Amino acid sequence: MRVVLELPVVQRVVVGVIVVNSVTIGMETSHFLMERVGGVLHLVDRVALGVFVVELVARVYGYGREFSKDPWNWFDVVIVGVALVPASGPTSVLRALRILRALRLVSAVPSMRRVVSALLAAVPGMASIIGLMVLMIYIAAVIATKLFGAIVPERFDELPQSLFTLFQIMTGDDWGNVAQEVMAHRPWAWVFFIVYILASTFVALNLFIAVVVNAMNDTEPSPAESRAQDDLVAMRQELAAVNAKLDQILMRDHAPEDQRRGR
Fold this sequence. Notes:
Layout: H1 2-5, H2 8-27, H3 31-63, H4 71-84, H5 104-108, H6 110-121, H7 123-148, H8 153-156, H9 159-170, H10 175-183, H11 190-219, H12 223-262
Helix pairs in contact: 2-3, 3-4, 6-11, 7-9, 7-11
Pfam families: Ion_trans (PF00520)
Main location: membrane
InterPro entries: Ion_trans_dom, VGCC_Ca_Na, Volt_channel_dom_sf
């Protein structure tokens, strides 16, 4: 059973079913399509769910105890389990969560699994940078509230408003208009906004991206590292073959001497 599940054809079929089911669930949001082909869409959804359940049961049977050791298998169990909950009564809200089946692509496609694993490996580094960004925004918000709260109260009247405005500026959303509103009363305010944008956007966010990229590089070896590893394996095999030939030669050389001594 395990051999069958690991066949490339079977894996491609599962990926294809996930993609088709994700598309049909998205099509169900259209009233136009539901009026015309709603029955077909529901049928495809039930067939896809049946395929997922059969595939999951087959994996439990084929892998046995090893199934529970892989966290990706538990991820698939949760996704399929949510889909099996009746979408009526108090649990009707779970019907909207059927699209979570599309996340099974993460566990079905190895390259996506590597990306998610890299993101999880980068969490400790990202936590430090997130803490730095929160501290930076908080300090800037306190300063902005003190300096600009009286002149632009709709944006900097109180600390929560200042935090939201500065987060908006950090994402680059409409920061020019915000700066212009403040500079109409405080011409020197451009210094504050330029320093804040440089510190938050160009430094902190780039550090955030650098941590993620570094984690991905550590998780997945580069092509040069892969070639070097393959060369080492080939060299070990060649050395083992040479040692075996030397042993055979030595055994042939010692064999006549042993025979003469025996005589």
